Automatic annotation (TrEMBL):
It comes from the Eukaryota. InterPro entries: Flavodoxin_fold, Flavoprotein-like_sf, NAD(P)H_dehydrogenase_qn. GO terms for molecular function: dihydronicotinamide riboside quinone reductase activity; metal ion binding; NAD(P)H dehydrogenase (quinone) activity. This is Ribosyldihydronicotinamide dehydrogenase [quinone] isoform X2. Keywords: Oxidoreductase. Belongs to the NAD(P)H dehydrogenase (quinone) family. Residues 4-212 form the Flavodoxin-like fold domain. One of its GO terms (cellular component) is cytosol.
Length: 231
């Protein structure tokens, strides 16, 4: 939709990968709609995933005992976080929709993307106490996960070897994104692209592009336990 701003946080090492194709088609389709699209290509940026005292540029509030959460909160209030964190927070602040594109690693995100979440979504910026879940500081923004799996779709049902895919989405969609106030759109999961034919992979990319045509009309999921675990 014209005038909307989208941030794609992208975590894959290979530009010609299937994840790369999904990212590229999202950039193309959203740009075609008149959106302003920004990509944070975390591997290409060599993004630092570790949350350390280097993230605070000014004096520590408690130098005798280092607590990352406390220091990041104080530094956020004083605008003394390190420049790479501030740059990412600015992108998030400006975005109407934040999209995460990544391959599933161990039912979770790759380390570089976990580090982005740990460092960028700090207290004082993304949430406060009080100021979380429906009152999170990023309320009014949309988020969506677009991810690929190694396992096939039949593995990710309640009776499948890996259990329902919604189980592994709980810490990411609810514990992270919803906690920060995002309204979460239904995930887009591309199952087992490595085991698909070239034609099937093209179809998967096309279905993502097709969904993005009407993404702004979608209603967010009810991001509470019943969506994940049933009644």
């Amino acid at each position: 939709m014209a005038g909307k701003k989208v941030l794609i946080v992208y975590a894959h090492q290979e530009p010609r990968s299937f994840n790369g194709s999904l990212k590229d088609v999202a950039v193309a389709e959203l740009s075609r709609q008149g959106c302003t699209v920004t990509v944070s290509d975390l591997y290409a940026m060599d993004f630092e995933p570790r949350a350390t005292r280097k993230d605070i540029t000014g004096a520590l509030s408690s130098p005798e005992f280092f607590s990352y959460g406390v220091e990041a909160y104080e530094a956020c209030k004083k605008r003394s976080l390190t420049s790479d964190i501030i740059a990412e927070q600015k992108k998030v602040q400006e975005a109407d929709l934040v999209m995460f594109q990544f391959p599933l690693y161990w039912f979770s995100v790759p380390a570089v993307l976990k580090g982005w979440m740990d460092r960028v979504l700090c207290q004082g910026f993304a949430f406060d106490l009080p100021g979380f879940y429906d009152d999170g500081l990023l309320k009014g923004k949309l988020a969506i996960l677009s991810l690929t799996t190694g396992g096939t779709a039949d593995m990710y049902w309640k009776t499948g070897a890996s259990g329902d895919f919604r189980y592994f989405l709980w810490p990411l969609q609810h514990g992270t994104l919803h906690f920060c106030g995002f309204k979460v759109l239904a995930p887009h999961i591309s199952f087992a692209p490595e085991f698909a034919s070239e034609e099937e992979r093209r179809g998967m990319v096309a279905s993502w592009a097709q969904r993005l045509k009407t993404i702004w009309k979608e209603e967010p999921i009810p991001c509470w336990p019943p969506w994940y675990f049933g009644q």
